[in-house]
Amino acid sequence: MALKLTSLNVKGLNSPTKRRLLFRTLKSDKIDIAFLQETHLTKSAKITLTDHVYTRAYVSGALSKRNGVAILIRKTCPFQLISQKIDTEGRFVLLTGTLYSMTYHFLNIYAPTTPSVDFWDSICNLVSALPQGAVILGGDMNAVACPAVDRGGRQASTVTPTLGRQDKLFARFLRQVGLIDVWRVLYPSVKDYSFYSAPHGTYSRIDLFLVNGLAMSNVIRAEINSISWSDHADIALYLHTPKLAASWSWRLNSSLLRDPEVVSQLRTLSIQYFQDNPPGETSLSTIWAAHKAVMRGHLIKIATHKKRTKLHSLVTLQQSLRRLEMSHKSSPSPELLSELLRTRSSLKRLLLDDVAKQLLWSHRMFFEKANKLDTLLARSLKPRSKFSSISAVKTVKDVLVNSPQEICAAFTAYYSDLYNHSPHHDPADKSHLDAISSFLDSLSLPQLEDSHISSLSAPILEEEVNCAISALGGTKAPGPDGFSGGYYKVLRPELVPFLTSVFNDCAEGGSLHPDLLVANIALIPKEGRDPAAVESYRPISLINFDAKIFAKVLANRLSPLLQVLVHPDQVGFVPNRQLFDNTRRNADLIWWLSSRATPSLILSLDAEKAFDRVEWPFLFSTLSRLGLPDFYVNMVRALYSGMSAQVRVPGSSPIRFPICNGTRQGCPLSPLLFLLSLEPLLAAIRDHPEIRGVQVRGDSFTVSAYADDILLTLTDPISSLSHLGPVLSDFGEIAGFRINYTKSCAMPLYMSHTDTASIESGFGFRLAPSELSYLGILLTANPTALYSKNFTTMVHQIKCDLEHWCDKPISWIGRIHSVKMNILPRILFLFQTLPLLLTQRDLAGLQQAIDSFIWQNKRHRVARRILYRPKTRGGLGLPNLYLYYCAAQLTQVVAWHSSASTRRWVALETAFMFPDRPDLYVWLPRASRPILRTTCPSILTSLRLFDLARTKFELMGAPSPLTPLLRNREFPPGLRASDFGGLAGVGLLRYRDLYHNGRLITFSELQERGDLSPSSFFRFLQIRHFATAQMLEKVSTAPLSALEHVFMADGPLKGLISRLYLLLSSSPGQWGPLTYCDKWEVDLCDPLPGDEWEDIWEQTSRSSICVTHQEQSYKTLLRWYVTPVSLYRMGVTSSDFCWRDCGEKGTYIHMWWDCPVVRRFWSLVHAEFQKIFHRQLPMDPWAFLLSRPLSVLSRPEQLLFNRLALAVRRALAASWRQSILPSWSVVTAKIVDACLMDELTAKVRDTMSSFSKTWSLWEEYSSAPNCNLNLN
């Protein structure tokens, strides 16, 4: 394996086609480092010469489009930059760095075409000043060292070779710096050239690689290739590298799965294979593993055949071109030159055609996904990662190694030790198993019920496997076998039956094939860590998709039972538990401790490699102790037995090593197993009598966890810590769990200096006197500092990001999507996790920054109230931060209505509010509430926001049917709620409980619900009297509002914040009237009912799959465009008459519809539309301008009509301020492009039938013999 460098004069890269052609050439030739000249990129150009393969580019540009050089480096090249020097005139780029432990100086130059003493002297001084190392200078010298052998051709053969002035300067330069012309040294008597001058009819070798002696010792060979798409030939230089292994591994090409013929072959082959290999003596897992080998071989054969067919013409032309070039260089003649030019032209045309196809598909991708809530927009906002490759790491002996194989060995040794850290903990070690049993027996752990056990013990069904396959991402990276998720989705009917049998065989004691259980370990660098340390990388296990499907099936079975098996203190990865459950709880506890000045300690435990260190004997013992049946445990054991991994480092041969502990990341089952393995530790801490937590009304709050992020709230800290240490030590001995004391952090509250010092010195915990980082927020010792330590910092960072993004090429709606995709999740995280009381003023600065970003610091073109209005209500849906804050906080009021036993913070706040209950107290009108017996900020914030929803947003009536009967000042006897405990126990709690089937409920009906004491009858009479006296029938029987339904939902609701935000943003009087609707109705003299406007809003949002095209629909609807009248009113112009010289005032409707010139244009369009749809269509401006549905069109026809009308409007908008309107040919060109993009997208999405229904009428029209798409 060699390092391959190339140098090429590209003659300009401002064209996207040429850039794509360049990268195609570099990838095809497997270039590691590319020296480019004459890029013609200016300093101000926003073009980046990088892609997903060549991730680093060092570019020098001039002020104008001339000169320009660049060095591109492949992402797999382990070059580590030390310094760089970039010329300001686009003449050179110098990089100094290390490559395979050797210092290299790469200098790319583009010499002036005319003699320049200053240039060559500056390059000479630059090279002479370089420190020791290998020097490689490449580029276009515009000179030759020896004309006798470096120039040739028709005219050169008749002239005595002499050195020109430029040649002399170059020769002097070579003598001064002592660099070697690599190609000439390797081929001293060969004549070959890199440039042909057509005007002079001469060849010359002006593109060179020059090296010093140190670099020359590493040279393998040099090449001059053919002149193809540029006017220079590319030259190549091959360098020795340390012995590298091939880094290629097979991976399924997903495009094959979109070929119906290939899919048909795969179906047939898989059916035949399983018929020929029925279960028998050979295990099912072996048959399955062999099936993958057979399918892989067939896919490789198909891919190879397709590639050879595709490249046949290209290879033939390249060979012919090389032969003709060599002949013409040695014996130039006009006939040979003519044939050479024809061949070169054919090759260039073939390359450009191929690039055009690639650009077409790129255009389709941007057409569909640009400016959307999708990956493209996310990547454009995300800073480019600086990580390229791992160039060197330290071994366990602290020796720095840099060859890929040594790097791979260092990582393998580290992870092999990590995943086999306790070899004496063997499952057969009885003493160790006894220690595990003794520990588990000492704890009070939950047990599964019989119904749960039966669900886990049932054989796996094909429906479960299908469900698991559907849940897996088809674009995720595959494991070592190379099969992607798409393979299993496409061949589901053929593969699922046998795969289900393999999984069920594991439950009966069968095993999985070792190749199925191997994983590739991908290394992701941790930010801010030493890149030379092996522990500075996060290992991501890329497991095979069949193993992932098996794990997903098991996870789907286990996940619903986590609510039973895992205590509410643990909220990570448990359904219906959220991160804010712990952040709100701990903020509440800090307030409680601070309000009572209780000496206490908040301790954050950092678990070292928690997921990777889980001991399997302990894990499986815990599973059995929790009551998981053998049927299920056997399947988990099969997934973990024989597990192995290999670290993938480019250029190295992976070394497979066994795994004997840990739950690997990337496996769907791993997080759930980790929770169950950690639960005994949390139980041991929670139940230990000497580890004292915070006591509130008889309940203890000691430990809270989100997976391995453990936070302890301890009172009597010194005593509690002295007993905590042995618990952690004992658990670590049997489970592999280890605390990193240097990273664990303790925040003391109201502790003496003596006790605080002893914590740091005696227990080794790092002290944080004022703030503690937990789950992405800072918990503060002073509860009032939560805002400044968290929110202020986040707002500053967001404002910086918005300012940085302001100049990015993102469209108007794309900017709205950017806020939704990037800003909103970040700010929502704080809204949910911090119980802060914010006002609109607190958020005004950030909201203003978002507004400025949307409009790029320019004048607003759309009113703010429309911008923030929901799309379904005629707006654009830009997030209103204050409404989202209210919605996020109201979700926690919704959580108040869940059982206190499932959310620990609800139990805590219920204890704070005793004798009131938060789920009842909140529904009381403010005048009817008894005095609250707590000042907890979280509770006060939730109550205030609930009252705001009821009053300001008018989302509930007052009183509500949900108003409680007890602890209600309107009903004085009920203030002593304990007297009515019996009635509350049978469901008589709220006003709506008073009436049943339209009449007042009777005592006998209540008795049927449960046993009631005789005294309860008197209390019932008091309630009945209250209901009658207050005339509560109307209130009690009133239907619940939409918001009340959300609060009283039986189970957790998906998208709860979005639901609440929609209700808040759609509340009466929130946004005011839609002025643009009124203006349209006035302009068209046709008032529309509300439902028709809703149809228009829906059609506008669906007018195109391309956001850029969709924007035009919104701009027309929202009256974006400036008109002669509006410009005149702003004082920009001196006349308000139409630009099309019709003599009338240029109002908005005039410019779009009423102008006589425009009416003729629309008449032509209308006539063509009637031909397309084969029927009479009304000349309706609502339909043509605003996409109001036409009753005469079906749904697919309406969709086509909207697409066509959009193309017409886009053409009209493109000539907005011109007197001449677009021709029909311009319109049809836009329609053809939209049709092509929709068709390509349909092919990718496999929705061609839907495409055909929509576009069939257009295709019929455009293919008709008498159709004239160029009609004017």
From TrEMBL:
SUPFAM superfamilies: DNA/RNA polymerases, DNase I-like. InterPro entries: DNA/RNA_pol_sf, Endo/exonu/phosph_ase_sf, Endo/exonuclease/phosphatase, RT_dom. GO terms for molecular function: catalytic activity. Residues 505-779 form the Reverse transcriptase domain. Gene3D superfamilies: Endonuclease/exonuclease/phosphatase. It comes from the Eukaryota. This is Reverse transcriptase domain-containing protein. It comes from Leptobrachium leishanense.
